[in-house]
Each structure stands twice: as C-alpha cells, then as structure tokens.
C-alpha cells in the first residue's frame, strides 16, 4: 500500500521524514560495507531485488482517493539480505516507483517508512523471535518467518497507515474501517502466499541466498 497523493499535513510529513532518516542512519551505520563490497552475489541480490520490487509495485489497485494497495514482497527480501540491506533495496525500488510516476517524490519518506521500513523491521523481529525459540524444524522458519512474517508486516504497515490517516483527520474512522480495515485480512493472504512461496523455493534450491537462515539449526 502507498500514498499516491499528498494527503498529510506538512507537520506529519516532517515527523515521518525524521523517523525515516533515523532508521536509515541506523541501517547505514550497522551495515558491514566491506562484506557487501566483497560479496558479488550479495550485490546481485540487493540490486536484483530492487528491480523486481520496483516492477512489482507498479501493479496496484486504488482504494480511496490517494491510497493504493500492492504486494510488498519485503519479507522475502529481508530474509534474503537482512533488514538493513533490505531497506536499501526497498528504497531503490521506491526510486523506480517515483521515476515511473506511481508515487510523488514529495511522499518518498512516508511511503518508504510504511512500505519498506515497517515491513522490514517487523519481519526482522519475527525472525529474531524464531531464533530465540530455537526451533529445530525448518518448517518453522518457512512458516513463521515467511508466511506469518509477511502477513504480520502488511498488517503493521496497513495499521500504521490507518492510524496516520485517522489522526490527521484525512479520513474519519468509519470511512477507514468500512473501506479499508475490514478488508485488510484479505491483503494478508496473498502477501503471505507470495513471500512464503519465494522463501520456500530459496530454502529448497538456493539456501545460500537466505543470509538470515542458519542451516545448522535444522540438521
């Protein structure tokens, strides 16, 4: 989901821009740039994922004026690259979306926060939880991190968008609940399916591409 028209007041755009910048700075500081430079395969995954997401996000449906929905795909990218590199890949995809005119440049920060950063961080949190539980069956990684993680990330992003629209008075709660919130569970199923299938395929055929996967735990 993303904003296609500037619905928010200037003060909220400033607040979201500060939050966006804070998360981005943390990602930049915590990224192992030497590892990224030395791993050509990782570079291919980062830029390849950005291109795929950029074109995937062209396919969207409009809901209320200025608000659209689309498959995120950020869960699979986060499990491939880790949340920091996933943020960079997602933001590169957002640049493609802006260049193609799907979203305005003025909303880059708020759309980046909701579409890229929130799903990446939620997926990362669920992945950390799965690690702490120390499951020994690889289906736990596929189900919790892939299928469930994708659904949870979309739910978090969707509710973040709803709360922002409600707090700023862009839409009243009845309108949001009637035209958006009650349909949100329908968005979770395709998101979980798409990401879960991608993660399953990678785990079976190319587990080395999933940098968050510790294969030793499932032997």
UniProtKB/TrEMBL annotation:
<keyword id="KW-1003">Cell membrane</keyword>
<dbReference type="InterPro" id="IPR002751">
    <property type="entry name" value="CbiM/NikMN"/>
</dbReference>
<dbReference type="Pfam" id="PF01891">
    <property type="entry name" value="CbiM"/>
</dbReference>
<feature type="transmembrane region" description="Helical">
    <location>
        <begin position="138"/>
        <end position="167"/>
    </location>
</feature>
<keyword id="KW-0472">Membrane</keyword>
<feature type="transmembrane region" description="Helical">
    <location>
        <begin position="41"/>
        <end position="59"/>
    </location>
</feature>
<feature type="transmembrane region" description="Helical">
    <location>
        <begin position="105"/>
        <end position="126"/>
    </location>
</feature>
<feature type="transmembrane region" description="Helical">
    <location>
        <begin position="187"/>
        <end position="210"/>
    </location>
</feature>
<keyword id="KW-1133">Transmembrane helix</keyword>
<keyword id="KW-0812">Transmembrane</keyword>
<feature type="transmembrane region" description="Helical">
    <location>
        <begin position="71"/>
        <end position="99"/>
    </location>
</feature>
<keyword id="KW-0813">Transport</keyword>
<protein>
    <submittedName>
        <fullName>Uncharacterized membrane protein</fullName>
    </submittedName>
</protein>
<dbReference type="GO" id="GO:0005886">
    <property type="term" value="C:plasma membrane"/>
</dbReference>
<dbReference type="GO" id="GO:0000041">
    <property type="term" value="P:transition metal ion transport"/>
</dbReference>
<feature type="transmembrane region" description="Helical">
    <location>
        <begin position="7"/>
        <end position="29"/>
    </location>
</feature>
């Amino acid at each position: 989901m993303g904003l296609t028209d500037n619905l928010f007041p200037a003060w909220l755009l400033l607040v979201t821009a500060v939050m966006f910048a804070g998360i981005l700075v943390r990602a930049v500081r915590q990224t192992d740039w030497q590892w990224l430079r030395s791993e050509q395969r990782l570079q291919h995954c980062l830029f390849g994922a950005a291109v795929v997401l950029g074109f995937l996000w062209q396919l969207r449906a409009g809901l209320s004026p200025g608000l659209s929905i689309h498959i995120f795909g950020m869960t699979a990218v986060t499990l491939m690259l880790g949340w920091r590199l996933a943020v960079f890949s997602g933001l590169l995809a957002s640049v493609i979306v802006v260049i193609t005119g799907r979203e305005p440049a003025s909303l880059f920060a708020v759309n980046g926060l909701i579409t890229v950063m929130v799903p990446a961080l939620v997926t990362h949190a669920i992945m950390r939880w799965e690690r702490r539980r120390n499951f020994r069956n690889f289906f736990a990684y596929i189900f919790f991190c892939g299928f469930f993680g994708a659904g949870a990330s979309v739910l978090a992003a969707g509710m973040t968008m709803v709360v922002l629209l409600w707090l700023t008075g862009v839409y009243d709660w009845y309108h949001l609940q009637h035209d958006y919130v009650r349909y949100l569970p329908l968005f979770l199923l395709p998101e979980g399916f798409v990401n879960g299938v991608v993660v399953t395929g990678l785990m079976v055929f190319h587990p080395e591409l999933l940098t968050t996967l510790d294969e030793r735990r499932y032997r």
